[in-house]
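Translate structure to sequence.
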């Protein structure tokens, strides 16, 4: 019998932030399949466990859930799925452990550990069709002191997996360190009710008159009921002035916001008369549910507005008017995950500041200083962003540019030079390739100036303009230390880029004032050039110094940096697609291997309720 374990990794938040992972924006279902599982005994059962690991937690690994047991097969296809919440902007590590189950005991130490696989949730989501194959291997492990059986790798508390563990006795379990033990196939899909948007319209008839010198000014307030019996406001209509028979405008609301995906959950609607001083008069209320509303316009959706206090005081009280549902429709909104699953690739480009204000790279005070003991600010920022975004580009080839340096052999100043020295192809292989090219450039170019952004913005915009069918979306990361010198040209370049499939991230390193960068960010005032407003807000700026951990813990601080600069990318991508009327493509067909037929599996047990 086999037993598979999987762990979900999530970085700690600050204490002031909530850590509950089910409150995140993109819930996704994870499922798994094992092909050619390791042979341990004559008959087989496979059992998978999904768990959550908070790498900076002193508690180490915590379990997320378990699949059902499958008998007598080397190619189990698990039915039970696990709902985890997906953050594009975070590195969410997963670990899967495979066990051969020898008994009904829930204690893992009493079962044989066969192998494990590591990945991130982003790897699964970013794979073609959101389907990822990983080899199961026996890597780092320890021996159980009681049974002598190998146990899987554990976290050392720093977010890294322990590598130097004992291997004595591994042969007893049939495993060899590094040996492949089969393949695990993982897939992710977004929960359907996450994307449903309900559109509805209401009117009212014969509402109570609340104003002494006129009629009422009514509006509706919608509340979603919570698990603890309380209510949370989720929508408020506009005010219709001076009428007892208002017709409110059509409005749209995500189904999750209305009922949290529970179609029978109570929805409370309160009717008020608007007052200028904010002390709105309560007219009455009624309750309904999403399932009732979904019936559309009918006799079932005419609601009596009741004021409980009036009903208690007046025996002949009937109601304070009625509210009628005029129309109801629901449609699925396209989401970021729809486009990624449909094959949209995120093309990542990095541009690094090589101006003289960074200081001499050979001196330890320089922002470009290459210490043998730790990465500098440029490398840390690049790695934090790159290691997350890399999974959404299938070829892992990333253009890397520099600006503000004199190039050999003639000392020509360039604001758009390839870090790898290849003018025809500035792409580097993976994030490590970018770092290697960056270090090479520091040894070959002369830091100079000024700080011009427009050339690199135009460079990426030119590539983005070449493919506008929704299959590609470009993200430019600019890392800089100083005050921008070509503000007018950069604004114009950004305004032109805002109509293209691209976003720009700017990270400011060092202690300079970055007021101009805040202006480019455009959160408060949309950026403009020559009287023309940018069609979209595509720039996100953060100062690196805000994420420097004084304790030296770069793992958490860089996780926060990546989260803040990448959080807006999904919405920016979707806003471009919607503006251009581009629908997600159908997911590419997976070229799945066909495992041999195996006997029918045991039906899954009841779901295991776990808490993180």
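Result:
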């Amino acid at each position: 019998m086999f037993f598979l374990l999987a762990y979900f990794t999530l970085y700690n938040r600050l204490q002031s932030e909530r850590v509950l992972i089910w409150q995140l924006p993109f819930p996704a279902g994870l499922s798994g399949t094992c092909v050619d599982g390791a042979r341990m005994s004559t008959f087989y059962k496979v059992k998978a466990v999904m768990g959550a690991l908070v790498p900076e937690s002193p508690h180490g690994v915590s379990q997320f859930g378990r699949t059902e047991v499958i008998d007598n097969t080397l190619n189990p296809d698990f039915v039970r799925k696990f709902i985890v919440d997906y953050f594009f902007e975070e590195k969410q590590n997963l670990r899967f452990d495979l066990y051969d189950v020898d008994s009904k005991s829930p204690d893992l130490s009493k079962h044989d550990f066969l192998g494990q696989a590591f990945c991130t949730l982003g790897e699964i989501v970013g794979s073609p069709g959101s389907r990822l194959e990983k080899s199961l291997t026996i890597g780092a492990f320890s021996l159980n002191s009681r049974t002598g059986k190998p146990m899987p790798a554990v976290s050392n508390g720093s977010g890294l997996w322990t590598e130097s563990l004992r291997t004595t006795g591994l042969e007893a379990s049939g495993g060899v360190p590094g040996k492949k033990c089969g393949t695990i196939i993982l897939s992710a899909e977004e929960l359907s009710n996450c994307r449903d948007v309900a559109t509805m319209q209401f009117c009212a008839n014969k509402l109570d008159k609340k104003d002494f010198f006129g009629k009422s000014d009514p509006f509706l307030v919608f509340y979603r009921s919570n698990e603890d019996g309380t209510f949370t406001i989720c929508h408020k209509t506009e005010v219709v002035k001076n009428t007892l028979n208002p017709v409110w405008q059509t409005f749209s609301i995500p189904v999750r916001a209305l009922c949290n995906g529970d179609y029978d959950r109570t929805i409370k609607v309160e009717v008020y008369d608007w007052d200028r001083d904010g002390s709105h008069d309560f007219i009455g209320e009624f309750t309904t549910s999403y399932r009732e509303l979904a019936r559309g316009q009918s006799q079932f959706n005419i609601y009596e507005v009741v004021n409980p206090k009036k009903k208690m005081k007046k025996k002949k009280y009937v109601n304070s008017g009625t509210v009628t549902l005029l129309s109801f429709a629901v449609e699925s909104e396209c989401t970021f995950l729809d486009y990624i699953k449909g094959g949209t690739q995120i093309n990542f480009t990095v541009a690094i500041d090589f101006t003289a204000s960074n200081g001499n790279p050979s001196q330890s005070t320089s922002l470009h200083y290459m210490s043998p003991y730790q990465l500098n600010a440029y490398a840390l920022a690049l790695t934090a962003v790159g290691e997350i975004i890399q999974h959404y580009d299938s070829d892992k080839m990333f253009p890397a540019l520099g600006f503000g340096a004199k190039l050999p052999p003639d000392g020509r100043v360039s604001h758009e030079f390839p870090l790898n020295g290849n003018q025809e192809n500035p792409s580097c292989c993976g994030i490590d390739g970018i770092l290697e090219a960056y270090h090479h450039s520091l040894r070959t170019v002369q830091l100079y100036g000024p700080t011009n952004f427009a050339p690199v913005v135009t460079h990426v915009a030119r590539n983005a303009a070449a493919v506008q069918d929704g299959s590609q979306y470009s993200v430019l990361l600019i890392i800089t230390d100083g005050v921008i010198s070509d503000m007018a040209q950069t604004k114009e370049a950004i305004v032109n880029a805002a109509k293209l499939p691209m976003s720009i991230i700017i990270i400011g390193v060092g202690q300079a004032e970055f007021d101009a960068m805040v202006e480019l960010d455009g959160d408060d005032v949309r950026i403009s050039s020559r009287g023309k407003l940018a069609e979209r807000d595509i720039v996100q700026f953060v100062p690196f110094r805000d994420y420097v951990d004084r304790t030296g813990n770069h793992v958490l601080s860089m996780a926060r940096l990546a989260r803040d600069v990448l959080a807006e990318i999904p919405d920016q991508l979707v806003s471009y697609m919607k503006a251009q009327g581009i629908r997600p493509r159908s997911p590419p067909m997976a070229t799945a291997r066909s495992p041999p037929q195996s006997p029918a599996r045991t039906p899954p047990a009841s779901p295991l309720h776990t808490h993180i």
